Amino acid sequence: MATIAAPQQRSSKTESYVDNKRKEDVRHANIIAARSVANAVRTSLGPKGMDKMISTSSDEVIITNDGATILNKMQVLQPAAKMLVELSKSQDSAAGDGTTTVVVIAGALLGQCLLLLSHGIHPTVVSDSLHKASVKAIDVLTAMAVPVELSDRDSLVKSASTSLNSKVVSQYSTLLAPLAVDAVLSVVDPAKPEMVDLRDIKIVKKLGGTVDDTELVKGLVFDKKVSHAAGGPTRMENAKIAVIQFQISPPKTDIEQSIVVSDYSQMDRILKEERSYILSMIKKIKATGCNVLLIQKSILRDAVTDLSLHYLAKAKILVIKDVERDEIEFITKTLNCLPIANIEHFRSEKLGHADLVEEVSLGDGKIVKITGIKDMGKTTTVLVRGSNQLVIDEAERSLHDALCVVRCLVAKRFLIAGGGAPEIELSRQLGAWAKVLHGMEGYCVRAFAEALEVIPYTLAENAGLNPITIVTELRNRHAQGEINAGINVRKGQITNILEENVVQPLLVSTSAITLATECVRMILKIDDIVTVR
After folding, report:
1. What does this protein do (predicted)?
2. Catalytic residue among 64, 69, 99, 379, which?
């Protein structure tokens, strides 16, 4: 790294020359790097946005236009550019949707900052003015928003389908949007209505069929077969289900050692002991009336052996083995039962009850469905189908975004128009506010207002329309008081977007502007990069 030039002493005692060139160069380099990341995802904004094909180092191919996924997979090395990747992650966790929008806004703001800095305005003044403008922008958006009730299912479906319309699987939005709404509403806790935990919605992917076959299952789905190596049952009505975290197999020694058996009688005794050990365990299980066993995957030794499967089959107990450790919490919450860590703690009150547990053939493989669960917890399962892995993965990502949109509406029950309408309205109102402000602040706020026009401009550009004509017409319509006028990319013209049912949660827009402004302010404040090796 180059050294920072020391101040050169002049003949006059009061004046000294400080070289600010390096600080400007660092700031300039940071802004250029961050803008290049924003420009990379800009083309994938909106319903007519392009998709990106990502080839990872492990030869995995991903096709997506989800901003968070694209940036996550990009190997960004420049520190300031990495901040934009983190920015899209923040938006993903805060709102779930608008991950491309937030990066595009940040890129446009950085472009305007570059202009302001070149005019000699100090970075601190620019930073403070951006903060003021973002606070004002949130107020304007809140004033534009339309309140929505959770009972108004149509509005929730409209906002979910707006989110899905910009995805690869947009043709299935009529199926996936109501499914996302029903899934979220089924896990809302009446005691804490504004809190929705998306971990209560489990998405199970199964290859085969088409996205049309995707369904919401009121119960549990396992992407595995029933263990019927020994001819055990594959269907069980009036199931009493136990989730066990111990192994039904012969115990091992505590330390790594080998036991030498010298004659047959000793060998016979070992096998006899093993049999009686397993039998006594299965008798205890059977005594509680349990007829379905979910066995957690074991690291130390086999969770079940062929011998134990044979005895379980004879006892008419249906066995699902290799249940992942991180699924246990979801399963016990759904079944309203307790996990059992030791055979001595096996009690009938720890069991879950369901009307039916059965193995179903799907595509090439089989799945296990548990339905009709008694006293079921506030959880639900979505079974996603698709003709190939690329489609299934993209359907899962799109569904996650739709679920997040509905979650946003549950948390903050306001809707706002889409299609670039809020951004143009913000731009107009902030532009008018900038004229009232004095000094440098007015310039900075005007720059913020101009930066927001990047969203309608990009939407028009990606849809193959003339962006300058469209944005000029949009400004004109908003100036006449049509605050919900936006770009209808399907018709290629400007219409009232609320009437076209293109809506999004207020939280997505407010979060995007707040986070983008925070990120830009942080990049502006950096005046040097120190590398520590």
Report:
1. Molecular chaperone; assists the folding of proteins upon ATP hydrolysis. Known to play a role, in vitro, in the folding of actin and tubulin.
2. 99
For the chain, what percent of residues have pLDDT higher than 70?
A: 96
Catalytic one among 64, 66, 381, 458?
A: 66
Cα dihedral 152→156→159→161 (10° resolution): -120
Write out pLDDT tens, residues 148-203.
888 888 888 988 888 888 888 888 889 999 999 999 988 888 778 778 888 889 99
Which one from 92, 401, 514, 517 is the annotated catalytic residue? 401
For this structure, is 100 an active site residue? yes
The active-site residue, picked from 64, 92, 97, 100, is 100
Q: Please indicate whether residue 99 is annotated as part of the active site.
A: yes
Task: Give whole-number Cα distances, 7 to 27, 115, 154, in Å.
Answer: 20, 27, 67
Tens digit of each residue's pLDDT (9 = 90 or more) over 335-369:
999 999 888 888 889 999 999 999 988 877 888 99
Phi, psi (5° rounding) for residue 2? -70, 150
19 pLDDT band, cuts 50/70/90, is: low
- 401 is an active site residue: yes
The contacts of residue 233 (CB under 8 Å, 6+ apart) are 226, 313, 316, 317, 318
DSSP designation for 354: E
**Whether the Cβ atoms of residue 168 and residue 162 lie closer than 8 Å to each other:** no
Q: Which of 422, 444, 356, 403 is nearest to 184 (CA)?
A: 403
CA distances from 192 to 19, 73, 196, 335, 471 (A): 57, 36, 8, 21, 43
Q: Tell me the C-alpha to C-alpha distance, in Å, between residue 225 and each of 26, 220, 321, 369, 513.
A: 58, 14, 9, 10, 47
